Structure formats: structure tokens, C-alpha cells
Amino acid sequence: MKTFLSSLFGKLSRCWYFVRYTDKLPYWQAGNARLFMITLRKDKADDVGLLEHEKFHVKQWWFGFLLLSAIGWPLMYFASEQVLMMVGAVVSGCAPACHALLYYFVRPYRQWSEVKAYRIQLARGGYGDKRFAVLALMHPKYRLNLTDIKAKRLLGV
Q1: Rounded-to-integer distance, Cα 136 and Cα 129, Å
Q2: Residue 52 in contact with residue 120, Cβ under 8 Å?
Q3: What is the pTM of this model?
Q4: Does 1 score more than 70 pLDDT?
Q5: Best exposed site among 12, 34, 50, 104 by fewest CB in 10 Å?
Q6: Where are the transmembrane segments (predicted)?
């Protein structure tokens, strides 16, 4: 039984995300993560740091999805009151969008999400110059309104 569980865990640990390579990304993106799909530019295929950055965003998505699913499904199927069943259905229905909604509407969550992902990218990417991460955090696309000094402090650079 222990061997079976080890084998199952090993297989599942390799399939919680999928990567595809394309050049059909906005000019300012080297990669992105949507749900459990990671999209990277073809010329960034060997960039381990970038892949780790996007994998962290996928982990965030899985966490929100599984958390809301673990709350919503039992409510939907085991609650005796109809109101709780409806609440469970709404919570379960929102589960796939949890990370995206938090990321888009809650600036502190978006900042935490990107700072953590860039820290992972810098730690595992083997980059000589880490200035790109500071500039990326300051980019208007993230809507974080960070200064150079604050971005450096958050990244620990």
C-alpha cells in the first residue's frame, strides 16, 4: 500500500500544472499562468526562474480552488437547509475564480502574490542582475504603485 501511495503521489506531483510555449503573448509578458496552465515564450523555455515564478501562481490557484471546494461541496451535498445548499453551490462555483478575483481586486493580495513569486524566481533562476524584478514590480500593469526603494525592500535586493 505504501508503494502504491508513493507511486500515486509521484505521478500527481508531476501533473498539477501544464506548460505550453508560444510567442502569442503581450509584448510585456515573458509568461503567465491561467488556472493550471502556464504559458511561456518560446525563447524563455530554459528559464528555470520564470517557470518557478509561474508555478507559484498555479499553486496559489490550486490553494484557493481546493479550499473553496472543500467548503462548498460538503455544504451543497450534506446541508439539510436549502439556503446552505445554495451557499455551497455559490462557493463551489466561485472556487475556480478565487485566485483571479483576489488578484484582480485586492491590491495587498496581488502584491504578496507577485513579491513572493519574484522572490522564488530570483532564488532559483540564477540571475546575475536582479534589477529586472524590481522594474517588473514597478510596472503599471501590476497596479501596485511601488517606488524603486519599496520594491527593492520587498524583494530583499
Answers
A1: 13
A2: yes
A3: 0.85
A4: no
A5: 12
A6: 61-79, 85-106
Cell of 147: 517606488
Cα angle 32, 113, 91 (rounded to 5 degrees) comes to 90
Quick count: other Cβ atoms within 10 Å of Cβ 52?
16
Strands (E), the chain: 18-21, 31-34, 37-40
For the chain, the 3-state helix, strand and coil shares in percent, each to the nearest 5, are: 70, 10, 25
Alpha-carbon span 49 to 107, nearest angstrom:
24
> What are the residues whose beta carbons fall under 8 Å from the beta carbon of 114, sequence distance 6 or more?
137, 142, 144
CB 14 within 8 A of CB 21: no
Residues 6+ apart with CB under 8 A from 72: 87, 88, 89, 90, 91, 92, 93, 94, 95
| pLDDT exceeds 90 at position 155 | yes
Torsion of CA 98, 144, 58, 100, to 10 degrees: 20
